[in-house]
Amino acid sequence: MATYEEGSLEAALQAGAEAEEEDVDDDDEGVQEHLKDAVEGTLRLKRMLSQDDEAPEFEELGGKKKKAKIVSERSAEDEAKITQLLTQWALLQDRVTRHVLEGMTGEEMTAMIASGYAPDHFNQWKSPPELVHTHVALTREKVGPGSGAVDTIVAFRARWKLGPETEPVLRKLSHKDLRYVVNRFNGSEFALEELVAQAATAEHEESTATGALPDAPGCAMMGRFGRLELIDPLADCAVFGDADLSFAVKLAKHRTALGHVGRVIATTFETLECLRERYSEIDDTIKTLEDHFAEVFHGVDCTRIAVNENFKGLEGKFGCVYYNFPHAGAVKGFFDGHPCVNWRHENLMRLFFRALRSFMKPGGLVKVSSSKQAVGIRYYYICDGALQSEFQHIETVPFQEWHLSKYNRSYGDKRDAYRRPEKGEGYNVQRAEFDMLYCFKYEPSGNAPGPVKIRMPPKFGVLAACTDGPFKSLVGEGKKALATQLYKRFVTEISGEHVG
Length: 500
Description:
Elements: H1 8-17, H2 24-28, H3 36-50, H4 76-88, H5 95-101, H6 106-115, H7 128-140, H8 152-160, H9 166-171, H10 175-184, H11 192-201, H12 218-227, E1 236-240, H13 246-257, E2 264-267, H14 272-278, H15 282-291, E3 295-297, E4 318-324, H16 339-356, E5 360-371, H17 379-388, E6 391-398, E7 435-442, H18 460-465, H19 476-494
Parallel strand pairs: 1-2, 1-4, 2-3, 4-5
Antiparallel strand pairs: 5-7, 6-7
Helix pairs in contact: 3-16, 3-19, 4-6, 5-7, 10-11, 10-12, 13-15, 16-17
């Protein structure tokens, strides 16, 4: 799953640019110049899929005939490391495991060789490529504050890599002083000690909600703001992926009760017709939202809002955005953590945050909830995707402590047609105490952050060579047919269309 920045995609785009020049305008879909960064990642991934030199002619998948093939520029040294690992593990012919290793950096492979790690060939639950993929993910997740609860001070120290000696200093600060330090520290202009001294003599700002209780304990007070959802009362906010809109209703009522004048933009990925099949109450829910001056948009792909007409004119308007329990959709026969499908979950988070950049106000908040034990949308994907697009991690709140947590959880798929909360069939597929709310603040530097890093999908040949999941009992034409079907699904999803 090589990232574009690691060589293969940039080489591919360069190799194919001249050959498919006439297709570029179609891919750009008329997006405005200032929004091109918000959709660039999905367009590149779409071209990547359509240019797979191992796939059937792309016409068979409902698109245009491919005109360029992907050219890999992985160094000979990295190729040698991949071959060394596969040889050591007796997996030299395993294309799925090779696909996993191709997504690693040279440094990561060197560390893996030195560690002596090897996948268990006799594991009863996971195949070797799954085990390697999980091992890589867990290794990456060792860096950072962890997937569980993280307060303001821990997140602040992790961001600036401050030593343990700063912990007692920060925890002694009042609300006013801690907020002053957190908002102004940039790692270079002033030393932490200088800012702490300045904070003690700084004037108290009474004109905003953040000035409340200035002498209260700093960390506890700043944590209450997030838990009580005291957001910018003037800014608009958006909710993405809200299956039955029950969370949007709770948010709209919350903002109305606080006297906020900013709008609530509620969105669903499904069409209204699909929602009516699954949720008998959906029309009443929409009416409730409209009674609270919220707007409801259907068929919204959160990674492609730059090409959605409903979002035209909303650039720079969002003060807060919510995405509860994101998921790229299940693929029958595969667990979410399998490398043939897990790239979709990682890309979802990276493309989501990149798409938001053009629509967020500086200082705006983004809140993404997920289980800290999730193997689809891993917490690392959320935090890393945010950081790539200049959204800084400011706190992780246990979901049950959040003021807006009590809403009707749903599956977000066909199961909702017959498993509904009012029928005693509430969402119960994970343990509530593991659910977390990951909170981020948009802090643009003024410089372009560079192309979004996204994970390469498996080539058609990798899918066709897979021997587990839904491919376990398939051979010959049946296996090729399923590989073609999945490949077509991936192309369709990247094009922003709902599948399943």
